[in-house]
Structures are given as C-alpha cells and as structure tokens.
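Two proteins were folded this term; both appear here.
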Amino acid sequence: MHTMSLPTTNRGVLLTLWKLGGPVTIQILLSSALALVDTLMVSGVGTAALAGVGVVGRVYFVLGMVLAGLSSGTAVLVAQYAGARRLRAARGPIFLAVLLGLALTLPMTVVSLLWPREIAALLSPDAAVIDAAATFLFWSAFVAPLTAITSTLGAVLRSTGNTRLPMWAGLAALGVNTVLNVLFINGNFGMPAYGVAAAAAATTVARIVEMIWLTIALKPGPLLRLHAGLRRRDADLVMGSSGPLMLKEIAWAGGILASTLIISRMGEKALAAYHLIVPVDGVMISAVVGCAVATGILLGHALGRSAFGEAADSARRMLRMVSRSAFALGIVLALLVQGLRHAGWLEGAIDPVLHDDALDALTMLCVGFGARAHNTMVTLGILRSGNDSRWLFQVDLCSMWLVNVPLVAFAALVLHWPLPAVVAVMTLEEVCKVWLFGWRVKSGRWLQKIA
C-alpha cells in the first residue's frame, strides 16, 4: 500500500482533486440526476405520490446521514492507517462498523414492515400523502440495512485511494434502479404500472446489486476472518472516531427533516415543489462533495504520517480554490434559473402549479451555493481528516436547532411566507457558518493523528 503525497501547486491540486474526487463526483452526480428522473416519473403518478415519497426520503436521508457519520469516522481511521502503512490494523474497525450499522438500521426495517401507516401518519397530515408514504415505507423496508453495508464498504475503499471501484458499483446499482423505474412506475413498454411501490422495490434491488459488487471486490476471505482479530481498542477507536460524527449528522439531518416537516404544514403544493428541487440541489453539490472526499483522503494520509505543516497548507489552498469557484458558479446558475423561469422553457417538464415556486426556491439555493460549498469542504474534508468531530457536533447542534429550525418555523407557520422565502431563510444558517468554519481551519486544532 503506497501513501499519497500532497500537491504543492494549484495545477497539482486540480489534478489530484479530479483523480480522487472525480469518480466520487460522477457517482453522486449520476445518482442525483437519476433521482431527479425518478422524481419526475413519480410526479406522473400524482402530487400526493411525489410528496409521500419525498417525505419518506427525508427520513431515509436522516438515517443515511447517521450511517455517513459511521462510515466517515471509520474511513478517517483507515486513511490514517494507510498513511502510516498499517492498513492491516484497520480490519477490526471495518468489521465493527458494519455490525454497528446493521444494529442501527434493522429496527427501521421492522417498523416499516409492521407499522408503515402509523409511521407515515407522523410525517404528514394529508390522507393521500399518508397512503403513498406507507406504501413506499413497506416496499423499501430493507433499504436501510443494505445502505449500512454499502456506505461503510464504499467509504473504506475510497479512503485507501480506490475511488473508482465504489463508483462502478454505484453505477451498476443506478442502472438497475433506472431500468426498473422506467418499466414499472408508470407501466412503460407494456409492463404493469405499480407506482410508488415500484420506486421503492427498485431502490431495494439496486442496493442489493451494489452490496454484492462491493463485497466481491473486498474478497470474501478477509471479510469472513475479520472477527478473529477484534480488540477492545478497535471498538474504542470506532466509537471515538464515528460516535461524535454520528451525533453531528443526527443534529444536522434531524434539523433538515424538521424543516421538511414544517414545509409539509404549508400544504401539498409547497411540499411537492420543495421535493422537486431536492434532486437538483444534489446535482449541484455533487462536485463539491467529490472534492471534499478527495481532500479528506489526502489530508488523512498526511496526518497518518505526521506531516502536519503540509496538511495545513494544502487544506487552505484546496478550500480557497473550491469555495471561490462555487460562489461564482452559484451566481451564474441563479441567473440561468431565473432566465428559464421567465422564458417558460420548463413549463412542459414541470407541473404548472409548481413551476414558479420551485424555480424561485432553486434560485435561492443557487445564491447560497458558495457558502454551502465552503462548509462542505470544511466538514466533509478538512476537519474530518483529523477527527475534529466533537467541535463539528457542537456547531451543528447549535446552528441547526437554535437558528435554522426556529427561523424556518417562524417564516413558514407564523409569517406564512411563500416557499422561496422559506428556502432563503434555510440558507442563512450556511452563510452564518462560513466565518466560523474558516476560523477553525486556520486555528489548526484539527491537525491530529489518531491511528
């Protein structure tokens, strides 16, 4: 296993970010793009179906972020072990992370199978939305534990510098998901139409394909022998690295879910328009996530070999390049979206009832894209590489629950502002955190060797 050196020039930064982050970006970009296609196909079933699938999707989003905290914390350990040329020592933590992920997600499977309608009733007061959400919950019951396995194995592979293999596994899953959706959601090519149930079942099958691909790639022999090498220290490392990150993701993603539930109280139209732009938002942020993952891999390897000065310099350089580019791109995209809105070129693709609100809300997200890109680089890439997770948890807990959620609730439920204004309020949290995250990076307190 070779260690990766840090780039020392702007050209080197761009080449390295593309080499490591490109496959991640492609995977996320295609996933988000296909999610948009799925959303448009589900919207053909009706706005209630779109809203129901969207609100359940936010529950899975919260659970997925918890799993992302677990897999990210494990990946930090693996990256530092790789930098120190001690990759064999990472086997125990990897196995424990998979077991912990299954323990966290299997309860979701049980309640989705036994009480889907009761869970759906907690997510929306609308009867039609409850029906759609309950159907989606039942048929996607096994998605959560499958995601627990695939997210951990994919993150582990990426942390060693192998970003292409998870990309191919993800692309295979996306291909299967898309084909099944096209055939069975609306009943194309002579196939029966199963609506929301087809969308859920397709997602489950796609996760199974991805899990099989990653498991074969990691070779069954070493995976089956992992339990023989478990140590108490492995458990301490996994919980010390992943525990605060999981709490951070719960605080942040729980706030996003709370904001979504607040928007659901604005009515079916607002909720459907909001979920229409969520996949577009995923496409926008995909390139930044790829850069952040690449940054985390590089810095983790550097910290593993105690190259603290190089890590600090490279972190500032990569953060500056990505955040400035994202700010300029966000402004251009905001102008483009407004041009499309007023030209009416998307009226055939978007329900006329949702058209204006969805595009105006998307414009607000574009304006705040630079701030979100800056914060994504810091949280997913720089601070996580040194496991500065406790500080991240404290910041997200306070900013989300003391600032974002109360302001969104006040704007939506008290002032009765329209959806675009509420989305603008949601972006304020990201803008407020830019200075705070920048200060943390400059302080160097994240420069830690933990493996």
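Next, the second protein.
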Amino acid sequence: MNQPQQQPQPQGMGTPMGGQQQQVQGIGSPVSNEVYDVITTLQSKLKGLEAYRKFAQNGGNTQLWQYLSQIDQQAVQVLSQQLEQMVQAGHLRQRQAAQPGQPIS
C-alpha cells in the first residue's frame, strides 16, 4: 500500500528550525532596518495626524488634539529630514539578497 508522503510542516514567521535566522534567496527587505524604521515611524505619525484632525472635528477636547498634532508635526519634520539624508547618502539603494545559508544582516 502506498503511504502518502508527508509534507514538511511550514515554519512560523519567526526563527526557522535550528534556531538560526536565515534568509531565503530573494526574500527579505531590500532596505536596512534603519531605513525601514524611519519610514514606518513616519507613516505612523502621519496616520496619527489624520486621526487627531478627525478627533478635533468631533468636538470635545480640541486643545488636546491640537497639542498632540503639534508634537507629531515636529516628529514628522525630523523624520522627513532624516529620510531625506538617508536618500542623499544612498541608503535607499536596494541591498543584495542574502545567498542561501548566509545569516540576515
């Protein structure tokens, strides 16, 4: 009787078997963690500003939303400047994907 071949169980999104982080060839972020962090934080602050605008329109404590908006606008300015510096320094250029067996940098 033919037994069905067992398919390997997919690993979670975290650490692969053996406890070592590895990157599959061609899969991974083409930008550094630093660039990713700045872009992600900038996007989060911009979403926050939109939320504050909506909350202020709903009434209530308008001064609170204006105050928080001012703080986040300053953060957006700093993050935008940082991103611009990264672009000028060439940090947004795509990185080479790791070869099989190489650890993630």
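The two ends are 48 Å apart (CA to CA). Residues 31-105 form one domain. These notes refer to the second protein only.
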